[in-house]
Amino acid sequence: MTLRIEIDDIAKHFGAIKAVDGVSFSVSKGEVLGFLGPNGAGKSTTMKMITGFLTPTRGTVRVCGHDVLQDPISVKANLGYLPEGAPAYADMTPDGFLKFIAEIRGLSGAAKRRAIDESADRARITTVMHQPIETLSKGYKRRVGLAQSILHNPPVLILDEPTDGLDPNQKHEVRTLINEMADDKAIIISTHILEEVHALCTRNVVIANGKVKFDGTPLELEAKSRYFNAVCVNVANIEQSQFEAFLTSLSYVSQVEKLDNNAGFRVYPKSGQQVTAQLSENIRENGWEIDALYAEHGRLDEVFRSITLPASEAKN
Amino acid sequence: MNLLNVWIIMKREFGGYFATPVAYVFIIIFLLLTGFSTFYVGNFFERGEADLYPFFSMHPWLYILLIPAISMRLWAEERKSGSIELLMTLPVSVFEAVLGKFMAAWAFTGLALFLNFPLWITVNYLGDPDNGVIIASFLGSLLMAGGFLAIGSCISAITKNQVIAFVLSLIVSLVFVLSGYGIVIDFFASWAPRTIVETISSFSFLTHFDAISKGVIDLRDMMYFISLIVIWLFANALIVNARKAD
Counting CB atoms within 10 angstroms of each CB, which of A50, A151, A170, B84 has the fewest? Predict the structure, then answer.
């Protein structure tokens, strides 16, 4: 585990507004950190401080051991960055644009050509290399930005909403690309698309109002949901009320909830433990026939709301 | 300062002028205006002298109008499109970026200036001019264009709006040309101390260019334009640094 990104208590205040207010976390090689939070939570501002675009009001950022304030050029050389909205020089072609990036990144000759071809291939933009960027679709523009960020094979990747505005196929391709690169890089991805938590991330940091509200694995994030490991169950050959009484009497069950349309019951286990196997066994002991039995996943949208909103608003 | 980075940024920016018809339109208008001012305003033929003084003496006035059109996009466009975030997170320093962009605009101006060479051929065909004077004037004009461009580049970093950049640059350029002349001096004399008024009057582009346009290369005139460029570009870098994320 080599630490690639170390962020210590950074803050960014714009006048009286505290856009980021004391954020700390670190990212190691092999990690894909999903940076979650509602719009305006401070995700982009934090990323801009990591990449050296914004100067923090306080705190330090180190990338591959280099301090972003003392040695910004080394930090920038070690990271690839896709800014929000994937800005590029619109009147250039992807080919010309990537050539410029490659040269600025210190590549020349055959190495430059190879880097451009490889990144264009990985980002799947080889068919549009000679069209002006301003004529490309949103998806292609995003991928040109992605190609630019991975061109020099950086040890650290910072991607600000890399799948925003892409169609499901394009999202899938971008996720595949990121997963391919994940092993030998430290990657931070900001997103508010919750399905990406499972599709991409090995770890999540949730921020709201400029502060870190959660830092852990996707599973730990899910476990915060009250639905985590809840079991939905229905049986055929018994009165519903009798079955409900039976479920309530079980020692490992904390709560039983009736599902709509007589579809059975949702059983909440005590302290989030896995109870599917045991429940199934207990039902069979009684000789009842199981119609449906499945464990629920944690509901991320609900967790997201409860973490990022004040308690009073989260209920609605 | 990594000169290779300056060169790479300059190359990209220079190419950017030719990615759209802007460069060609600009060059054609520049040539039309220099031709017009040389023959009709400067009375090239009627003077009956084999030199290019009528051509060069009009340059300060042409530059007031045309240079802001070249410099207005340098930073305003970068900030408006958001590509400044990309540029400033590449491993280049602000000074390298400022210098690279400035050099591109300067090279483009030099190219437009060079394309007036038929005029030089004409005057050599008609008479026997002092070509040393013409070369000195050419370099002097280029140096003055650099001064205008540095002002324009700096002002372009203040705003995201190219039209505002254009108008502001035009006004500041006008002030720099006219300082030392009546209206500007009167404006300052009413409230500023004498020494400041005298300093301002010594800042006129016209005074420093007049000798150069006659082929007299004075080190003080050269230093005036060079230090002007350095100061404006330094301010340019400070402004880019302060306002890049706005």
Answer: A170
When divided into structural domains, chain B yields a total of 1
Which residue is closest to A89 within chain B, CA to CA? B83
The string of pLDDT tens digits covering residues B218-244 is: 888 889 999 999 999 999 999 999 988
Q: Is the pTM of this model over 0.90?
A: no
Q: Tell me which of A72 and A253 has the higher pLDDT.
A: A72
Encode pLDDT of B127-144 as tens digits.
888 888 888 888 889 999
3-state helix, strand, coil in chain A (%, to 5): 40, 25, 35
CA–CA dist B52, A283 (Å, integer): 105
Count Cα atoms within 13 angstroms, Cβ side, for B182.
0
% pLDDT > 90, chain B = 50
Nearest in space to A200 (alpha carbons), one of A65, A34, A87 = A34
What letter would DSSP give residue A207? E
Question: Is A3-218 in CATH node 2.60.120.260?
Answer: no
What residues of chain B, 191 to 230, have a C-beta less than 8 Å from chain A?
Answer: none
Contacts with A74 (C-beta within 8 Å, 6 or more apart), sequence order: A64, A66, B91
Q: Which residues of A touch B90 (CB under 8 A)?
A: 76, 101, 104-105
Q: Domain segments of chain A: what residues?
A: 3-218, 231-296
Q: How high is the pLDDT of residue A241?
A: 83
Residue showing tokens 């018994």:
A238
Q: What is the 8-class DSSP label of residue A128?
A: G
**DSSP string covering B191-235:** TS-HHHHHHHHTT-HHHHHHHHHTT---HHHHHHHHHHHHHHHHH
Rounded to the nearest 10 degrees, how much is the dihedral formed by the CA atoms of B30, B21, A95, B99? 30
Q: Residue B16 and residue A51: Cβ atoms within 8 Å?
A: no
Nearest Cα to Cα of residue A235 among A261, A265, A257, A255: A265
Sign, CA torsion A160/A162/A168/A172: negative
Q: What is residue A92's predicted lDDT score, i.e. its pLDDT?
A: 93
Structural domain of B225: 3-243
Amino acid at B25: V
Which numeric CATH code is attached to A231-296? Answer: 3.30.70
pLDDT tens digits, residue range B172-181? 999 888 876 6
Does A94 touch chain B if contact means CB atoms closer than 8 Å? Answer: no
Give the DSSP per-residue string, B131-193. HHHHHHHHHHHHHHHHHHHHHHHHHHTT-S-HHHHHHHHHHHHHHHHHBTBHHHHHHHHTTS-
Tell me the average pLDDT across B60-80: 92
Structure ipTM: 0.88
Lowest-pLDDT range of A26-35, A210-219, A223-232, B169-178: A223-232
